[in-house]
Specification:
Shape: elongated
Strand order of the largest sheet: 3-2-1-4-5
CATH class of the largest domain: Alpha Beta
Distance between the termini: 80 Å
Largest sheet: 5 strands, mixed
Number of strands: 5
Strand content: 15-25%
Structural class: alpha/beta
């Protein structure tokens, strides 16, 4: 079967154009990290990521405190949160599944300066046994820092 050279070139051009368009489209909608930029300061990147996570509807935020304690709250209702031990975070996760669903729940982990390395390791170790597929570790935002200062 014979093909004209012009037909082959046009088809190749269309395939290349569609591949480029798909790459551009998919790279824009991947994650919060897509907004990360080396041309911005670390503070601007931190602000971008916090804004992204503040818009999530189905999230449980776990803030690691001193003495292996965790402050947990759902969605953006920080005033309704509670302090539990690391061992009790499984109860918060299970309550999050009931509020949202197992597939939609996102865990956002944040550390204070007083949190220990062991507490960080322990909370991350809780993700696999609880089958949490969507979790991230980011910095505290301004509202959380102010709330924790008031709570002391």
């Amino acid at each position: 079967m014979k093909f004209k050279l012009s037909t082959i070139l046009i088809t190749t051009g269309i395939v290349i154009w569609l591949s480029a368009a798909f790459f551009i489209y998919s790279s824009r909608y991947t994650s919060a990290a897509e907004g990360f930029s080396y041309s911005r300061s670390a503070k601007e990147n931190e602000d971008y990521i916090n804004v992204y996570y503040s818009k999530l509807k189905f999230k449980l935020t776990l803030i690691l405190l001193k003495n292996d304690m965790v402050f947990g709250y759902y969605e953006n209702s920080i005033k309704e949160g509670k302090i539990v031990s690391i061992d009790e975070t499984t109860n918060l996760i299970e309550a999050g599944w009931k509020m949202f669903s197992k597939d939609s729940l996102v865990i956002v982990i944040k550390r204070t300066k007083d949190a220990s390395y062991g507490a960080t390791r322990d909370i991350l170790d809780k993700m696999s046994p609880n089958q949490i597929k969507k979790y991230s570790m980011i910095y505290l935002n301004k509202e959380e820092k102010e709330f924790l200062k008031l709570a002391k």
